[in-house]
């Protein structure tokens, strides 16, 4: 297709903002429409990208979402991995297209979907040998228990797959690094761990701190989105679409207890923490600081990104997680001084 029409949700969020930057830098000639909630969000996008068409609403604006999805060649859905009405509206819009001119839906989920065994067992801080490869284990990944985090929306996306609606699910792990978008440029897991450590005056881990997660620098993740969008613009390209179109994006794996120890060392070096010792806290105490903390830092999420590498020659090159710790601590220290609370951003 020539100069495809893209409909983008979550353009002022961390993931969506950086991915939009990557895509629009590579393809300024494409036609972009962004959903924004209000004039303040719209002003952020317009200041960065005057050529973008803005539509105002949210994920409850079903008619608007359906209409814009139907008009688009590619839908990039970054706004939420858990909003059911919004996903259903996008599905309805794309499903009304013609098989001769299908639409492509690139949906953002998250490897939080892999946390369910630890959540079910109520075991936090322990390690797991279970890994999921997005090619070898795709059948298992697309049939995880219905109660797994994000699974409800994954099922909506998978059910929408058809000749007129080509779907792909991007499933990021721990993301780190400063974003380049027009709104929120800050991730969640490492910044919140840094924030809580600074506020209590000492770093901590969940239980024995053996939990494993994979990770990816935000710029490398955005490169994955660019490659998928380019494949869609080429009529599907070499990418897999439909039920098996499930994509992890990772470059390294970390143990959360080791991250906490590194954070403590960096915090002491910067004069922000008095000690480089790390407390082992039970899950309930971590949950008192951040409700989702036991899952974010104490449950296992191990996914292998074979599909992006094999199909789209994706090669992540970003700095390692540990190389971004000083910046994360400095940002959180300033936010504490400014009395900015811990909140989700979109």
Note the main attributes of this structure:
40% helix; globular; three-stranded mixed β-sheet; 346 residues; alpha/beta
Could you characterize the architecture of this molecule?
This protein has helices at 14-26, 39-48, 62-71, 84-95, 116-121, 138-141, 151-160, 189-200, 218-233, 256-269, 283-289, 293-298, 306-312, 325-337; strands at 5-9, 31-36, 53-56, 74-77, 103-108, 132-133, 165-171, 174-176, 203-206, 212-217, 246-248, 252-255, 278-281, 303-304. The mean pLDDT is 97. The chain contains 14 helices and 14 strands. The protein has 346 residues and is of the alpha/beta class.
Describe the secondary structure blueprint for this structure.
Blueprint: E1 5-9, H1 14-26, E2 31-36, H2 39-48, E3 53-56, H3 62-71, E4 74-77, H4 84-95, E5 103-108, H5 116-121, E6 132-133, H6 138-141, H7 151-160, E7 165-171, E8 174-176, H8 189-200, E9 203-206, E10 212-217, H9 218-233, E11 246-248, E12 252-255, H10 256-269, E13 278-281, H11 283-289, H12 293-298, E14 303-304, H13 306-312, H14 325-337
Which radius of gyration do the C-alpha atoms yield? 20 Å
Percentage of residues assigned to helices: 40-55%
C-alpha geometry: globular
Mean pLDDT: 97
> If helices are DSSP runs of H or I spanning 4 or more residues, what is the number of helices?
14
Unreliable runs: none
DSSP summary, beta strand count:
14
Strand content: 15-25%
- The arrangement of helices and strands along the chain is EHEHEHEHEHEHHEEHEEHEEHEHHEHH
Instruction: Briefly note the structural class of the backbone.
Output: alpha/beta
């Amino acid at each position: 297709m020539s100069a495809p029409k893209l409909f983008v949700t979550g353009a002022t969020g961390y993931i969506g903002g950086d991915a939009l930057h990557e895509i629009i830098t590579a393809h300024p000639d494409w036609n972009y429409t962004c959903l924004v909630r209000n004039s303040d969000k719209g002003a952020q996008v317009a200041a960065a990208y005057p050529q973008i068409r803005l539509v105002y609403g949210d994920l409850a604006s079903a008619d608007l979402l359906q209409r814009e999805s139907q008009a688009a060649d590619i839908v990039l859905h970054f706004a939420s991995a858990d909003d059911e009405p919004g996903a259903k509206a996008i599905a309805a819009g794309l499903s009304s297209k013609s098989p001769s001119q299908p639409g492509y839906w690139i949906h953002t989920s998250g490897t939080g979907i892999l946390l369910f065994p630890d959540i079910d067992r109520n075991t936090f801080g322990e390690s797991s040998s279970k890994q999921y490869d997005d090619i070898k284990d795709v059948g298992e990944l697309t049939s995880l228990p219905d109660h797994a985090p994000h699974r409800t929306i994954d099922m909506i996306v998978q059910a929408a797959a058809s000749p007129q609606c080509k779907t792909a699910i991007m499933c990021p792990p721990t993301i780190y690094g400063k974003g380049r978008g027009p709104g929120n440029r800050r991730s969640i897991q490492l910044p919140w761990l840094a924030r809580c450590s600074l506020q209590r005056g000492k770093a901590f881990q969940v239980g024995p701190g053996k939990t494993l997660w994979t990770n990816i620098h935000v710029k490398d993740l955005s490169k994955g989105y660019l490659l998928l969008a380019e494949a869609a613009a080429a009529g599907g390209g070499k990418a897999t679409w439909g039920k098996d179109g499930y994509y992890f994006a990772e470059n390294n794996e970390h143990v959360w207890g080791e991250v906490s120890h590194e954070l403590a060392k960096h915090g002491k070096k910067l004069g922000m923490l008095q000690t480089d010792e790390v407390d082992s806290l039970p899950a309930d105490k971590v949950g008192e600081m951040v409700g989702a903390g036991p899952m974010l830092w104490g449950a296992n999420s191990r996914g292998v990104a074979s599909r992006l590498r094999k199909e789209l020659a994706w090669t992540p090159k970003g700095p390692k997680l540990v190389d971004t710790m000083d910046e994360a601590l400095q940002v959180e220290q300033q936010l504490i001084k400014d009395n900015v609370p811990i909140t989700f951003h979109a």
